[in-house]
Amino acid sequence: KMSWLWFYIFLHLLTVACMCHSIKAPTSSSQQSFKANLFNFYHSLILADGKETTVHLLKDIPKRYYFILEEGRALAPFTITVTPCDVPIEWSILMHKASASFLGKAAQGDHDTQEVSKSPKASSMVSTIFSYKGNSVETYMGMSSYSALYVLEFLSTERDTHITVYLTTDTTSGHLYPELPMDPRIDVIGIGHTTLTLTWKHSPSVLQHRENIQYCLLVNEKHNYKSLCAAEAAIRSAGMKLPPTLALSLSPYLLEPQQVMILSNSELSIINKVSSGEVQQICLGTKNTYTVPNLSPSTQYYFDVFVVNLLTNASAAYTGTFARTLEEPEPKVTMMKDGKVIHVVLDGKKQDYSLQYQARHRKIQFTFQLCRGQVQVHIAKNGKKVASENISGLRYFSLKGKLLDMYLVQMRSTEEYNSSVKVQVSPQFHKPLFPLLPETLKIKSFSKLRTCSSVTIAWLGTQEESEYCVYKKRIEEDQVWMELQSADRCSGPESRHRSEKVLCKYFYDINPQRAVTTETIKGLDAGMLYLFDVYLFGPSGIPVRYHSKVVKTRKKC
């Protein structure tokens, strides 16, 4: 037997449908089909209690959801939270309250319902108890009666979008959404050229359910977001796919090719590279202070903090803030002198280092020897750029101009860690600082000539008679990457231990194709890794280091 409330919902939907269509009454067969479809329709739009519902809205097409109280419960409190995920929306709550005459007739049974349905206007009173327009997260709290039907109406007038709706009548079992503190603002407590330090007050939910709650920080250059849902929608609209839940996408296999995930010190950072810039999200666990690194100088950034329930994926947004990093300091300019070598160390914070030189000759030559990392070099003459290149190894720039031309050399590290480079400027006819170099600075090893106690290596020489010194160092498997990456290619044998020296020798060949030498290093341990280095010394005595070579001796012979 259908209760009076279920019948009332059916009656309301039927009345709305008839008012919308204004058509003749359908035939008996079509009427049965219509009622069946309407019954399925109203079932699909009943708002679930205690569950977050995703609602998809089409532009200018309203959508309605219905809410009724369980039979037998009177004057129960309930809350409804609506989270727009993209554009501002309009939404309202309508209460249809049954009249006393309708309640009496509905209670008599099905044979009276036809009479009631003939006068729907007399059977209920309709009132709007709440309405809102905007893109903020809004919550309505009220008292529900078993004699009332609630209708939630949603409308998007800008474009297709989606929202989330959460209804609950259970106020005793905790909150789906994490709680915000009394003061939900984000404070900026430190500003630098490339960093900003933020802090915020703890959510009460963190203090009560620490293991199930975490903070996620969103950083971007466009604007603040009022919900995590809105942030996801904005990134999607930029033409990028996201993992199912941005805040909880902790597994690398969920990331798209355009995403980079960085995990360090229990902090997860997902950087979404989109056409409009970078949107960076860092999930911090329960830390409520964080220094955002790797920002650009003199740039305004927007910061949003979301407290996330890991069990339900629901989140609440702190009041977003924005701040501007300090202006980039004027690059330090060092004057260069003919023939003098300057050793420049560049930090990984993208700060330029500048050198200035006033020419005393028409032809000059800049020499760069990369010691560590990778360096980008720009050379300008009288304000006009004449050379630009990423330096690798040893590089010469021969330039022509006029007497007293002013040259400006700007260098920047392209790595996150420090880079270093040696720079010299001199007239072209000046005695060269570095020795004549071979075609390649690679060291070759011969696998077939390896034994348990020796390896054979080879390297190219030049047409000039020069001194070559060989050094070896025993290393472990987990040291290989660090040794190769951290090697200072400008340092000479003076930085090596005496026990690492193998030999020094002179050689050259007038034919560059035949300027090759080999050396067999003996007295090694079986099955061990060795790092080999060759240093080339020219007339000036400044060494050039070949690229390090790692070779493993045979384990069994």
TrEMBL record:
One of its GO terms (biological process) is nervous system development. InterPro entries: FN3_dom (IPR003961), FN3_sf (IPR036116), Ig-like_fold (IPR013783), NDNF (IPR019326), NDNF_C (IPR045805), NDNF_Fn(III)_1 (IPR055271), NDNF_N (IPR056225). One of its GO terms (cellular component) is extracellular region. It is found in: Secreted. Residues 178-315, 435-543 form the Fibronectin type-III domain. Its main location: secreted. GO terms for molecular function: heparin binding. Residues 1-20 form the signal peptide. Keywords: Glycoprotein, Neurogenesis, Repeat, Secreted, Signal. Secretory protein that plays a role in various cellular processes. Acts as a chemorepellent acting on gonadotropin-releasing hormone (GnRH) expressing neurons regulating their migration to the hypothalamus. Also promotes neuron migration, growth and survival as well as neurite outgrowth and is involved in the development of the olfactory system. May also act through the regulation of growth factors activity and downstream signaling. Also regulates extracellular matrix assembly and cell adhesiveness. This is Protein NDNF. It comes from Upupa epops. The gene is Ndnf_1.
